[in-house]
Amino acid sequence: MVDEMSRCARVCIVDDDPIVSCGVQFMCQKNELEWLGGSSSVKELLSLDVLMSGDVVLLDMQLQDGSEAHENVVALHAAGARTIVFTSGIDLRLVRGAVAAGTWGILNKNESLATVCEAIKQVAGGEVLASGVWAEAVLADWEICDQLSDKHQSILREYSLGVPAKHVAKKLQTPKNTVNAYMQQVRDMLAEKHIKVENRVDVYLAAIRFGLISPSNAR
Questions:
Q1: DSSP SS3 for 90
Q2: Are 190 and 184 in contact (CB under 8 A)?
Q3: pTM of the predicted structure, to 2 decimals
Q4: Which of 32, 95, 98, 105 has the fewest Cβ atoms within 10 Å of its own Cβ atom?
Q5: How confident is the model over 156-186, as pLDDT tens digits?
Q6: Distance CA 208, CA 93 (A)
Q7: Contact, 13 vs 86, CB < 8 A?
Q8: Interacting residues of 42 by C-beta distance below 8 A, sequence separation 6+
Q9: CA proximity to 95, closest of 58, 42, 57, 142
Q10: How far is CA 71 from CA 62, 97, 102, in A?
């Protein structure tokens, strides 16, 4: 059996931006990484039947085919690949899904090619990427969100989308006064964590921060 650390890393990318794929291809060719190619969707990549156990896939978190990040991670891991989520922004709902699905790491597309190359080699060698400041912030927010009950999260989500309290109450089958009380509890809990939730904009930003909604949900 070939030692993982000594084997030439095999790399491909799933990204619907051809410029990004070209950049990664150039990096691979300059750093003795075996380039397997780029695909615009996980379905397309899997249909090519090129993946082997231990191959590294840079996976764009938001693809135009509408697929979910966690589903893509699961599908690629089932094929034996190791994923690195490759993102240009922070949508915590998608990040949490990818983390829960077992992705090997998360990289921002703004990272240098040298950083991306080193990350690929680490994952190809069997190492999970160490969390940086950005990843730690994600996990910290996740812990805060986990302290909110399902009811608190539901009410925060509805408020963040601009739904009036009476409609939130009707949708959740909860008295309006109870909805208002829950929302005040959310404000108090977040205030203890130095997170301001004083108006609708604050509520909207908090919901995005905790991954309860995507920025694309804005009305």
A1: coil
A2: no
A3: 0.66
A4: 32
A5: 999 988 888 899 999 999 999 999 999 999 9
A6: 8
A7: yes
A8: 14, 59, 63, 67, 72, 75, 76
A9: 142
A10: 12, 8, 11
Q: Cα(134)–Cα(5) distance, rounded to whole angstroms?
A: 27
Please list the ranges in the chain whose pLDDT falls under 70.
1-7, 90-92, 130-140, 214-219
What CATH fold (topology level) applies to the domain 10-139? Rossmann fold (3.40.50)
Q: Indicate the domain borders of the chain.
A: 10-139, 142-210
142-210 — its CATH code? 1.10.10.10
Q: Give the burial class of 192: count Cβ atoms within 10 A of its Cβ; 0-12 exposed, 13-18 middle, 19 or more buried.
A: exposed
> If you compute the radius of gyration of the chain from its CA atoms, what whole number of angstroms results?
20
